[in-house]
Amino acid sequence: MSGVAFGALAISYVIGSVPTGLVLVRLLKGEDIRQYGSGNIGTVNVFRVAGTPIAILVLAVDVLKGLVPVLLAVRWGTGPWVSMVCGLAAIAGHNWSVFLGFRGGKGIATSFGVLLALSPVAAFAAAAVWIVVVAATRYASLGSILGVGAVPFVLWRLGQPPAYVVFGVVAAIFAIYRHRANIRRLVAGTELRINDRRAKS
Fold first, then answer.
1. Domain that holds residue 181
2. Domain annotation covers residue 145
3. With CB atoms 3.0 to 4.6 Å apart as the test, which of 9, 51, 70, 200 could cross-link to 39 if both were Cys?
């Protein structure tokens, strides 16, 4: 691996590792987001705990955490495979942050940012799936699982490079793995809906 590629991967992971939801909620509300709702540091739980404006800010920064590393990798001329691995490194940073003892969020917003850089059409298709599912069920986790699960198929149907399709498969595996507890709660009927707010049990 070239020095440029290795540096791009390291920078991508560090950018992804910034725990946006934890930092912003603590700064702006004085609360630890991990003690409320699902305990997750992502946008949906921030919405439950801190309200819409802060949730939008967290969403925007988390999307940028995926978008910026890929755009930098493309600018540095690393090629599609390294660019998409930089995207996966950013998602891994969000999910297993070096700043949180290798814990973190679910990676959906950061995955959307990566996908937005690789294939805007696929990104908006995944967002459309999320919106429809959440509007119908009020379960953000279900929308995330189905939205990201559709990504590899959409990328393949769009004729995107093989590297991007591989990204879609790995990102879907990441997301499903990070949502495994949500899947159990969905099956049990105990999953929080998007507007539920209560202290973490």
1. 3-188
2. yes
3. 200
